[in-house]
Amino acid sequence: MRRKLVIGNWKMNGSLAANSVLLRGIVAGYAAQNADCGVCAPAPYLAQCQSELTGTPVAWGAQDVSAYAAGAYTGEVAASMLQEFGCRYVLCGHSERRAYHHETNEVVAQKVLAALNAGLTPVVCVGETLEEREAGRTNVVVCAQLQAVLDVLEAAAVEKIVLAYEPVWAIGTGKTATPALAQEVHGMLRKQVAERNPVAAANMAILYGGSMKPENAKDLLAQADIDGGLIGGASLKVADFLAIVHAA
Ligand code: 3PY
Asked: What is the ipTM of this complex?
């Protein structure tokens, strides 16, 4: 039985004061038996996460990483730097990075490699736009996004990644994929991973993201191939985030 995992993606939100209330609230209220949890904070707040969360059951991570190890890449943050701040996770290829920062499947794959080289767990995000779904291209799009990552990894390294299926049309829109629809894509992704490494596929956490909230978390998390959530807006409120973690 795979253990559930719920990760908050704060996006570009927060302040030292607000984060402190949020992190302390999560730590104080976390009582999950079946789920691990973590938060992915903006880079400047990783030191705060490290100081508030070290020694607690709540992990932390970043929302992006450079594909490069070091050098003249102004504004970029290297995986080794995230590792120094105690990060366990790093999101790779979130749809907002793909859309607004033009990250291609190949760039995302290089970021995944950089994360793994620094001992981080990449949370590889895939998902289709509304246009792609309506054109019947969901499977082609998400499989290509995943395949680009599988192609650069040794088979054994596939065991070290987490996947997140986030339909772009469900992000920040309040629309959520139905549990059946999400399950269909999750099942397909797991089969694709199994073709490369069956053990990795059986053990891999595949998270659902896209307007997951307390009201819909239980039904989504009850699906056979949905192993947790990548939570946007609801991760900024202690009660909502914990309700999702505890529904897992
Ligand atoms: C959302 O649910 O809005 C997300 O993008 C989570 O990453």
From this structure: 0.97
